[in-house]
Inverse folding.
């Protein structure tokens, strides 16, 4: 049974799932796959779906409190301005912060560099009952690292298999993994970067290096293609999210999270006490 809003003609988890053979170059970042609505009506849908997500997230948290060690991990990968922060704020942010574990992964610190690249990732994994969000992730170690040749190919090349094994281990230990590759067009990216330069309240989001990265888009495209081709697995599939329309990307990822949580078959944990007895006690207290 699905409770998808009627504007969806196809389930996001099906229509957005990366299929072998698909090309990053063919992604239209301005498209809205499977959704017939437009921006005008999206706020209302988003508000309702935020609530649905929040309800399920609370249920996951409640189960965690009762000893269930299952968790959900959302991996957000995308170029600058793709809207990762907006997903954190407007989608995951609808949940209860108590049960959310957010981690942004920037340039590794000296301490992090002294360890295996998965060291900092393991430390940030969501505990049982939590929704973890990775704003960038271990995939940077086969994206920026590959594009800028920060380590030689014989070092980054084995990482795809290593990441698959790592994610399998995670999935086997009860973590549902939702990986979103967020694509923004070069035109829209330019517009968003220009806005950051036009508004003093957005300067903090601008990094001059973003312009250099933008110029490397063909290399990134190749690196993203390799990620999707080599790390789309049954236990940790990639979803390809067109992000020129922020409202669409948010609705889509919201649905992926709802689906993932529903897939866990959660219910409210039973009371660990005799309810009637406690009611009697309370009445007399
Ligand atoms: P954002 O730009 O997402 O707001 P930050 O400014 O904190 O976040 O840092 C992101 C930068 O860190 C990006 O340029 C990204 O490529 C880089 N980065 C992340 N992980 C790694 C890594 N493992 N090695 C090198 N650079 C990395």
């Amino acid at each position: 049974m699905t409770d998808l809003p009627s504007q969806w003609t196809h389930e996001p988890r099906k229509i957005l799932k990366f299929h072998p053979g698909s090309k990053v170059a063919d992604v239209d970042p301005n498209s809205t796959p499977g959704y017939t609505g437009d921006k005008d009506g999206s706020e209302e849908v988003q508000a309702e779906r935020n609530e649905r997500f929040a309800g399920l997230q609370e249920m996951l948290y409640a189960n965690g409190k009762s000893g269930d060690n299952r968790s959900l991990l959302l991996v957000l990968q995308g170029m600058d301005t793709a809207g990762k922060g907006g997903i954190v704020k407007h989608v995951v942010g609808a949940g209860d912060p108590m049960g959310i574990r957010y981690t942004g992964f920037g340039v590794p610190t000296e301490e992090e560099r002294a360890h295996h690249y998965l060291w900092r990732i393991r430390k940030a994994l969501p505990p049982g009952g939590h929704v973890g969000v990775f704003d960038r992730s271990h995939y940077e170690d086969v994206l920026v690292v590959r594009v800028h040749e920060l380590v030689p190919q014989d070092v980054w090349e084995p990482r795809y298999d290593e990441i698959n094994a790592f994610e399998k281990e995670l999935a086997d230990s009860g973590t549902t993994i939702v990986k979103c590759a967020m694509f923004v067009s070069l035109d829209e990216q330019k517009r968003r970067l220009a806005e950051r330069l036009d508004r003093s309240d957005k300067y903090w989001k601008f990094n001059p290096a973003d312009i250099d990265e933008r110029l490397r888009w063909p290399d990134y495209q190749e690196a993203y293609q390799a990620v999707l081709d080599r790390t789309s697995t049954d236990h940790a599939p990639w979803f390809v999210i067109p992000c020129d329309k922020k409202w669409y990307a948010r609705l889509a990822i919201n649905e992926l999270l709802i689906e993932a949580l529903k897939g866990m078959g959660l219910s409210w944990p039973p009371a660990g006490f005799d309810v009637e007895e406690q009611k009697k006690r309370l009445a007399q207290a």
About this structure: The chain has one domain: 12-284. The pocket of adenosine-5'-diphosphate is lined by residues 80, 104-108, 136, 140-141, 144-145, 150, 207 (CB under 6 Å). The longest strand covers residues 175-183. Strands lie at 71-78, 100-104, 131-135, 175-183, 238-242.
